[in-house]
Amino acid sequence: MEPQKEARTLQDAVVRPPGASRSPAPEEEERREGSASPASTGEKADSAGADGLWELPVEPAERRPECSRCSRPQKVCLCPFLPSCPLPISTHVYIVQHPAEESKVLRTVPLLAACLPQDKCKVKIGRRFSEERDTELSTVCRKPGTLILYPGAEATNLEDFLLDSPVYPSTLILIDGTWSQAKDIFYKNSLFRLPKQVQLKTSLSSQYVIRMQPANRCLSTLECAAVALSILEKNSGIQETLLRPLQALCSFQLQHGAQIRLSKEHLLRNGLYPKPMPQSKRKLRKMELLMNTVKI
Ligand SMILES: [Zn+2]
Questions:
Q1: Is residue 263 within 8 Å of 216, Cβ to Cβ?
Q2: How far, in Å, CA of 265 to CA of 258, rounded?
Q3: Sequence-ordered strand ranges (E) for the chain
Q4: Distance 13 CA to ligand 1 centre (A)
Q5: pTM
Q6: If you measure from the C-alpha of residue 130 to the centroid of ligand 1, how many angstroms do you get, rounded to a whole number?
Q7: Tens of pLDDT along 142-178?
Q8: CB-neighbour burial class of residue 83 (10 A; exposed 0-12, middle 13-18, buried 19+)
Q9: Which of 23, 109, 213, 291 has the least CB density, counted as fewest CB within 10 Å?
Q10: β-strands 156-157, 20-22: how paired?
Q11: How far is the CA of 73 from the centre of ligand 1 (A)?
Q12: C-alpha–C-alpha distance, residues 64 and 67, integer Å
């Protein structure tokens, strides 16, 4: 769930997984990655030659037709790797998705949604949720059988929780975003403190190797759902079925030039993570650039 720069054009279609709904939050103006116009970033065309370019009509980028089930471009449809019919689960899954995640090219949530029955998997898009903004989610959070999957000191291991819980969980909430986005969503919405907080104790290393994870054990949203559902539904086959399209996605991307993204933990441990330039050096570099500009 670590941010990666993913190329996308302004006109890319944003396909929401079945059941996706957007929280009517005032943060509607939140900018998606890559959606800021040159003017809104405060940058101006600084050479005279570029001035006229902004007046040229914008040709809409060609939209690649997408598969209605897996939301992948039709040419690289992953449906052959999805179960022929949705998995018959009894747990209701709610995915709280950060708005920036919705526009990413390589997303795992549409694949998860495509594997589950529509009435068992709902995606809620937004950063802030409350009773007024989302009555459904608010009701779900107050139900005794609802769990939220978010690791931390307050969280109980899911398997341990099931041993002691008098109520068998009926609903699972997951947060989809980068690690910092998920943290922001979890801690800034008091609603998400109402369900029982659980975490996964798994030895599974992320197989989502084309997006960098902060640590080897950090899993993508699809992987978290796969592990949690196999525990809740007492069916290990669920994990295998849900991971199949992810493995196919990674394998396809790797065959077509994507690189394996080693976790930040791995890179740090091996001294390979790029160190940020100290503030003083950055200032010096900026001054040097400015002086060069003046000389020219
Ligand atoms: Zn498909």
A1: yes
A2: 20
A3: 20-22, 92-97, 121-125, 146-149, 156-157, 171-176, 196-199
A4: 15
A5: 0.68
A6: 34
A7: 999 999 999 999 999 999 999 988 899 999 999 999 8
A8: middle
A9: 291
A10: unpaired
A11: 8
A12: 10
